[in-house]
């Protein structure tokens, strides 16, 4: 088949999932099913089927997965860790060939980075579980932080993740080692990562973009300087004291360490061109980030 047809997505109306759904619907090649909790009041877009499930009932999850070619999971980092494992077990029992786990962020092959940013162990456990079930292949999407949301390091935009997923699914599933010679099919990324990026920028790059967009000068801003190691240590201390802000501070700061751990563009290369992702303009999306009031965050 030239593309996968049936795509189930968890978190279809969320910050990441909604963009993936938008791009899948635009492609016009897929039947998209939103898997939601039985008590959810979220409204899915027209053209999306809805399967309401009970996470406490394995059979309910399996029924929602039957006939699906791909399960895409987009869940909050605050979601119970067992929820994703339940979805993976249901996908395996339903014979779903592909799973895109909730893996949208840092380069998971860089163990010091992801472990010190607290993302490594839980993500590895999920991927290991998929492989141990022996039914589905997994694909992780490395896209850095969301630029729209955080103006963070080596970032991508929410919509770029959506385009990445839609482009990959449109290029076909096949089976392992059967990509028909067409680089870019799902089989080429089986049990591995796809690397995308909108921009690879420093904090200085982002500040200069903000100056251009807002028409301000550097002297209009209050600028302070703090070493990344010191700021990371402060974040860890805040976490020990029960301050959740410390988690965010430490996670972001770790990617800005001067060893360039967060710059995967140079070390791993990008799949942007392979997936047909367009070149994007930094200032355009800085403008959206600083002016948008009614958004999806």
TrEMBL record:
<dbReference type="InterPro" id="IPR036291">
    <property type="entry name" value="NAD(P)-bd_dom_sf"/>
</dbReference>
<keyword id="KW-0560">Oxidoreductase</keyword>
<feature type="domain" description="NmrA-like">
    <location>
        <begin position="5"/>
        <end position="111"/>
    </location>
</feature>
<keyword id="KW-0521">NADP</keyword>
<dbReference type="InterPro" id="IPR008030">
    <property type="entry name" value="NmrA-like"/>
</dbReference>
<protein>
    <submittedName>
        <fullName>CipA protein</fullName>
    </submittedName>
</protein>
<dbReference type="InterPro" id="IPR051609">
    <property type="entry name" value="NmrA/Isoflavone_reductase-like"/>
</dbReference>
<dbReference type="Pfam" id="PF05368">
    <property type="entry name" value="NmrA"/>
</dbReference>
């Amino acid at each position: 088949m030239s593309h996968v047809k049936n795509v189930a997505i968890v978190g279809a109306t969320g910050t990441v999932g909604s963009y993936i759904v938008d791009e899948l619907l635009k492609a016009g090649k897929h039947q998209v099913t939103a898997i939601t909790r039985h008590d959810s009041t979220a409204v899915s877009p027209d053209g999306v089927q809805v399967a309401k499930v009970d996470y406490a009932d394995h059979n309910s999850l399996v029924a929602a997965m039957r006939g699906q070619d791909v399960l895409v999971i987009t869940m909050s980092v605050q979601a119970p860790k067992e929820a994703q494992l339940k979805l993976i077990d249901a996908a395996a029992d339903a014979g779903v060939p592909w799973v895109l786990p909730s893996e949208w962020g840092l380069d998971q092959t860089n163990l010091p980075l992801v472990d010190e940013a607290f993302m490594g162990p839980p993500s590895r456990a999920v991927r290991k579980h998929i492989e141990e079930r022996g039914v589905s292949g997994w694909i992780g999407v490395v896209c850095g932080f969301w630029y729209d949301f955080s103006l963070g390091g080596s970032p991508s935009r929410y919509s770029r993740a959506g385009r990445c997923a839609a482009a990959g699914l449109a290029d076909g599933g096949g089976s392992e080692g059967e990509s028909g010679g067409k680089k870019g099919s799902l089989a080429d990324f089986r049990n591995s990562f796809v690397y995308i990026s909108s921009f690879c920028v420093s904090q200085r790059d982002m500040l200069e973009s903000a100056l251009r967009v807002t028409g301000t000068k550097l002297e209009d801003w209050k600028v302070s300087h703090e070493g990344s190691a010191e700021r990371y240590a402060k974040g860890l201390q805040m976490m020990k004291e029960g301050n959740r802000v410390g988690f965010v501070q430490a996670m972001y700061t770790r990617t800005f360490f001067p060893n360039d751990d967060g710059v995967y563009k140079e070390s791993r290369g990008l799949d942007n061109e392979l997936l047909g992702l367009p070149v994007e303009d930094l200032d355009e999306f800085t403008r959206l980030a600083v002016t948008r009031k009614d958004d999806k965050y």
